[in-house]
Amino acid sequence: MTQIIYDGTYEGWVTAVFEIYEYKLKDIVFAQNEASADLLFSTNHIVITDEVKVKRVLSGLQKRLSKNGFQGLYNAFLSETNKVEEIMFRYIQYVLLSPVNVEDDFGNIDVLELRKAIRLTGKEAHRMEAFVRFQLTKDQLYYAIVEPDCNVLPLIENHFKSRYADQRWLIYDAKRKYGIYYDLENVSTVALQFNTETNSSKFLAEISDEGEELFQDLWRNYFKSVNIESRKNTKLHLQHMPKRYWKNLTEKIPDIKGRV
User: Fold this and answer.
1) Residue 31 parent element (H or E)
2) How many structural domains is the chain composed of?
3) Which of 34, 35, 205, 224 is buried deepest, with most CB atoms within 10 A?
């Protein structure tokens, strides 16, 4: 068995695909950044991301996949589901071997699993577009903290750039320790250590704009006013707004004055 060790990026994975064919590697598994200790008797192949190899692989896939199918590979990678790299590689093998388009061949397990991963990423991206709650800092930066199941920041940046084009903002993924920052012109990826203890009154007092507490309280009061107690449907509410998102939603966090 061969462990394909790459840098964890999509480009790194695509480079790995090229080299698997180039060196005729067999029985492969993917590992990000370092070899897995679970595979003691495997050989390791270390991949260095190569833009030339990336372009060659992607160019070949574009000729064999629809526009949605081509984008779907990237979205599936962002799902971070278990063994998704291996599923994607077997799918690519199937695509390259088949004389016809196989994107809807759900009798093939890898096609089916790939589609599940794509849907998972799409669903999570849609939720993030709805659940992001910005807070205003003293230096007029709107920031939001999220912890999505999938790595969806690359998929939602255009939505927020278009919707909030007139303000500086930062959306930080606390799970993956990076964010996307908009400076009124461009969106860039930033890696930083960020205090995610948003329930701390001391933290909020240090960084928040003077009017932020008022705006948050107004939003919570609005949220309460539009919720009719007699029509409360907890099961449906949790279906549309799973509890794992609540700690970063303004309407679900207690009033600032009551925090400790």
Assistant:
1) strand 28-32
2) 2
3) 35
